Amino acid sequence: MAALLFKLSILCTIVLKIILSVEAQLSPDHYSYSCPQALQIVEDVVVEAIQNETRLGASLLRLHFHDCFVNGCDASVLLDDNATFTGEKTAFPNNHSLRGFHVVDVMKAELEKACPNVVSCADILAIAARDAVYHLGGPTWEVQLGRRDSTTANKTAANLFIPAPSSNITILTSNFAAVGLSFHDLVALSGAHTIGFARCTTFKQRIYGDVDINPSFANFLRNKCPRNGSDNVLQGLDVKTPSHFDNLYYKNLLVKKGLLHSDQELYHTDEADPIVRKFSRDVSKFYNSFAKAMIKMGEISPLVGNNGEIRRHCRRSNKKP
Ligand code: HEM
Ligand SMILES: *[C@@H]1O[C@H](CO)[C@@H](O)[C@H](O)[C@H]1NC(C)=O
Ligand SMILES: *[C@@H]1O[C@H](CO)[C@@H](O)[C@H](O)[C@H]1NC(C)=O
Ligand SMILES: *[C@@H]1O[C@H](CO)[C@@H](O)[C@H](O)[C@H]1NC(C)=O
Ligand SMILES: *[C@@H]1O[C@H](CO)[C@@H](O)[C@H](O)[C@H]1NC(C)=O
Ligand SMILES: *[C@@H]1O[C@H](CO)[C@@H](O)[C@H](O)[C@H]1NC(C)=O
Ligand SMILES: *[C@@H]1O[C@H](CO)[C@@H](O)[C@H](O)[C@H]1NC(C)=O
Description:
The protein is an all-alpha fold and 321 residues long. It has two domains: 38-161, Peroxidase, domain 1, CATH 1.10.520; 169-297, Peroxidase, domain 2. The chain contains 14 helices and two strands; from the N terminus they run H-H-H-H-H-H-H-H-E-H-H-E-H-H-H-H. The chain is globular, with a radius of gyration of 21 Å. The N and C termini lie far apart (53 Å).
């Protein structure tokens, strides 16, 4: 009897472990039965958004990053402020800076029509980021799915955990390590700055203070971005091809033409130099490492099982106050 009970308890433990590991894991097939059209719906809207405005591809990629770095990839970044709730949108790195929210609304509305209450906003961000990279000429990868959405957000955490453009290599490394990403991941993911734009205010300190900057590049930028104004003037993060997901970002770093202080920080320490050089020489090594690091970033503390919810609208929790 005791032996039988013992065996039974082992069996139960094994079954429980299998259930838990299935629940705890994301999978590319998560919507295969519940919403087989999900991936196509998101991709079509990404293509349309990029047709409307190329930069939106970059903006969608950044949304996923800013989501994942704050309490994991749980779509917390998408929650709007209201009378009784303050979300992450007005945190310093996000305020007047994050964009593409209306594109996510279009995706969610179409997904709710096709498969109500099934596809999470956190997964939408992961799929959209992947598709945006691909449609701007970059690599693709199998996207892991099954994240659920948070019912809340944390502005303090957004201010703490999203690195600032003034960050040095020590801070950048520790910000990434805090979410389980390596130094190699940091260098690869920073390659996202091969697309998109930055406001003058984010690189002003660099062009009037840093010595580690190409002099003619600094002059060009000082003309666009005077000391005393033009804070919202835009400059491509990759000065040459800001609409193409290539490896020019790394080539720029080699000649001290990184736009942000944080970009150039990757290429003046001995530790970083080999990786930056590797990616600048070999675009397929960059693509490979970028794809791997994106999958890793997308797996930061997802809400699974009974945690969180599937939001009906990405801008607010289903929970009534
Ligand atoms: C390593 C630390 C990072 C810092 C300090 C940083 C900082 C910034 C800043 C200051 C901007 C310009 C914002 C503005 O002008 O309002 C920006 C833009 C952007 N960032 Fe980052 N970033 C980092 C990493 C990443 C990562 C990991 C990704 C994605 C994987 C990413 C994707 C982007 C994209 C695509 C844009 C352009 C967005 C657009 O044009 O709308 N960044 N970043
Ligand atoms: C593209 O632009 C059209 C016309 O302004 C707009 O109706 C549509 O919603 C936009 N699509 C996306 C995905 O933003
Ligand atoms: C965010 O922007 C609004 C203006 O649109 C401003 O009132 C507020 O102070 C800004 N918040 C931060 C943290 O910069
Ligand atoms: C928000 O994040 C900060 C910084 O990590 C943390 O100290 C605080 O407890 C969090 N607030 C909530 C309500 O979880
Ligand atoms: C990096 O920045 C932090 C915070 O600003 C500072 O405490 C630290 O001394 C800096 N490290 C280096 C190597 O400059
Ligand atoms: C900024 O400074 C320049 C040169 O000192 C001056 O010509 C210009 O009027 C100033 N602009 C603003 C907005 O103050
Ligand atoms: C305010 O936002 C929170 C988070 O999305 C939500 O739970 C709450 O229902 C909202 N309140 C109102 C009055 O819409």
